[in-house]
Amino acid sequence: MPERNDTNSHDFEPAITENRFKYLDRALVKHRFRGDALIEVLHTAQELFGYLSEDTMSYIAESLHLPLGKVYSVATFYPAFSLEPLPGEIWRLCTGTTCHLRGADLLFEFLTKGRVSHHGDREMEDITRTIKPSSCMGLCHAGPVGIAADERPILHAHENDFVKHGRNPREPEP
After folding, report:
1. Is residue 169 included in any domain, yes or no?
2. Which of 51, 77, 103 finishes a domain?
3. Based on the structure, what is the number of domains in the chain?
4. Are 51 and 18 in the same domain?
5. How far is CA 39 from CA 26, 102, 103, 149, 171, in A?
């Protein structure tokens, strides 16, 4: 197994980071270190660490015997992955075709107005949550659809569904 550099794990205590890598190692073993399991392994790493650091992606690339560029290209292609820690809870809003036709893009525009991450993706960030675009969630009959941080689906999503305690997340705290 490749050596890993835990210097990127500044948000975690060393023992906690070590535990998270043990779970990542279990996922690698489960998938028999096969390169075709890259997306599943990236999802596991994202769940464990909250984002995909350069060190984590290097570790995955070495473990799966893949070029780092391949891992990076997959991690940057899919909006489910983040290369930097995101603030607060992660909420998702489907921007697939049906949800788009039912107003998801207008809702997303309202929620993210004036906010663009340095990766060029439009994201709404405040202290309590990040709202990211998502591909089709398979709930087209109830669009637009969102997924709350607790994995609860938000059917027929409306801006109020993304507002915590009656406050528009774009407005500053009083």
Report:
1. no
2. 77
3. 2
4. yes
5. 15, 29, 29, 21, 36
Instruction: Assess whether 93 and 155 both reside in one domain.
Output: yes
For tokens 């915590």, the residue is: 164
Q: Which residue segment(s) compose the domain that 141 sits in?
A: 89-162
Rounded Cα gap, residues 60 and 73, in angstroms: 13
What is the C-alpha separation between 10 and 3, in angstroms, rounded? 18
Q: Which of 18-22, 58-62, 102-106 has the highest mean pLDDT?
A: 58-62
In this prediction the pTM is 0.56
Segment 49-64, tens digit of pLDDT = 888 999 999 999 999 9
Any domain includes 173: no
Residue given tokens 């999503």 in the structure block: 157
Please provide the DSSP assignment of 26-91 as one string.
HHHHHTTT-GGGHHHHHHHHHHHHSS--HHHHHHHHHHTT--HHHHHHHHHHSTT--SSPPSSEEE
Place of tokens 């109830």: 142
Q: Return d(Cα 22, Cα 28) in angstroms, integer.
A: 10
